[in-house]
Amino acid sequence: MPKKKVKMLQDKPVVYELPEIKEKQGTLERELERDVAKSTTTKSALQQRILADDIGGDYDEDHDLEATPLAALDVTYEDDADEASDMIDLGIQIGKMRITERIGGLSRPRISEEISAGLSASQPPQLGGQKPTIEDMPDFLKPGDQYLVPNSGFFFGQIGEPPSILQFLPYKAAADQLMNQYFISVHPIAPCAHRPTLEATYASFWEEINAGFEPRPSMQALIFGAMFSGAISMDEAVVPPELGGFSKANWVASLKMGTESALSKANLLRTTKVETMQAFIMYMIPLCRAEVSRAHSVLVAAAFRMAECMGLHRDGEAYGLSPLETHVRRLIWHQLCFLDIRTCEAQGPKPIIRRDDYDTKLPINCNEEDLTHAVTPPEPADVWTTNTLALIRFEINEMMRIIWIDRRRLETRRTTLTAVLAKIENFRRRMCEKYDHLLDVAQPKQRYAKSVMYLLTCRLHVMILHPYHSNAANPMPPRLNQILIASGIMIVEHAILLETNPSFREWAWYLGAYFQYQIALLLATEVYFRPQSREADRIWSCLDYAFTIDPRLPPETKALQILSEIQGKTAIYMQMRKMRGPTSLARAIPGQNVVAGTAMHSQDVQHNQLQQPASGIPPEIPKIEPGYTPPMPAGRPVPQQPQMVFAGVADGQALWSLPPNHTSPESDGSSIDQGHQIPAPRMVGGATSSVPQGSIMDTIDWDTINALFPNDPHTGGLSMHGFHDPNFGVANWSN
Description:
Helices cover 45% and strands 7% of the residues. By secondary structure, the protein is mostly helical. The protein folds into two domains: 41-144 and 383-669 and 700-735, no CATH class; 148-287, no CATH class. Strand 4 and strand 5 form a beta hairpin.
């Protein structure tokens, strides 16, 4: 147990846990450092400083994340699993949501059994017969329209002579149309290049072609990468006549092969040319959107090592490079950082890029034309520029990297939930201060940028709070549940707006890079067990769209339909996936869920809390005695004391775990004393240590939480920035 420090305040002892003391001390030190730095730092350096650096604090990655009994950091696969891996590596599709066995960074090969245990009176899935074959694979296991698998041939070297560029090169009119499409639909939201420079390179490319010369391979790769991205961003139903009547799919397939061939000729694995790496990142951006396989994750990891070897992780100013060269290198590096987080969410256990691995600054908030002939870096503008949207995304991406680490620190009690939530809110506030006044929602591109910023910052709350949602043994306090649900609603509403608003049509192709509708499963779980929720109407508007279900059906029927469909489809998926987990995982026994009873109990507490003054600590949540069975609504069977309880949702996906007062099969050395688990010592770095007893909820500083998330004086509900913004509500989805 960590030592405690006690001080006297008005003759009343106040006890602080050691992690909290360290967190407060670190916060004060960082604030002092920032104040000193600001007094001696130029305006340009301040604008390029990553906000997350000022907020993230120090972190330590020496400890592993503690997995629940039904989760593992890694699993292995049977030898013949590869025969179907290209088809089922992406998981299952339900409505607009896709999930795999990878839940919140952990492998959960028994997810179907876990969900089955949570459905009242539900039985384990009865699959019957033999598993599906490749030929009769269900549609929900097949890749969607946005799935593009990279060809390993170009990466590891072609067999024989690479094909000629002329096999893939469009006519000049078609190429012009594709490049124009790139500059309209891709470059504004996912830039990898300086537009004036790329336009000049494109002109030189055709000059060499028309003169009968073959352009250098890196130039070929760059131009084909841009045309490939432009083809992907096109609307399937609106193919311009300049493209000769061929379908979008034909153009995508041909240009993809052309890009891969050019990258192969440019010796991607051995290159030191920034132009080649630029083309590779440009190629990977449209591939790593809604559907990401392990092949994508492996290529991004390789790109990181290549970029390091080329020095892209060091800022160009340190090498005396021109402002233009430095700008392009910054774009490439921070796009790679984004790809790291995106593929990590989909397939990998944690990001491979760490903040202390690089010192590459953010791009300057200026228009691209200001960099074309610049000898010295231009001053950052305090208005919307062509770089503003990219800056917003890069800033939030770095905060997500910190949150990935904080989730592990929470597991090992090296920080507190209050500290992490305060960090997130501080970041959100400073993002709004830095960028909100630059964004005019009357302009489509700027309104798009603001919606992206709100969607991504709301995801930070979900990343931290989802493991504690609907925990039957230790219910999430109503205030935190309100924060989680409000953030989830905002995420889906902004996603629907980005996908359906006609003003955003040109950029709708990129939505999967921000969001995959997985939070909809958390909202479905919430509204199933709390049907009288204050936000039920907004939740159901989101779910009807995300799962494409008939809005006329009764709410309970729709929620049960969603959860049952996920349970059944994951059963088939896991059977085909042929995973083999640790023996401890196989011994864990899922039990029936009691979340419905505790959900009603929390609703009562939530109702009482809303009647209390906004200031002060919320009322204590009564503890549920061992063996207590809460009252159940008519029509639902009374659940039994569980061996496994619903422990929340990771990025919108259901999690289950043993309650805090219950031992797991592999907890050798643990004992039970009056219903409370005594944790066994843990080996950390060769030394014995132990995780403090009690729930992470016990560390919450309610004065701080209530100050960060006050009640709305008009509605009595949660007052969260942007939650009631009229520019982004349900009524504005198609405006």
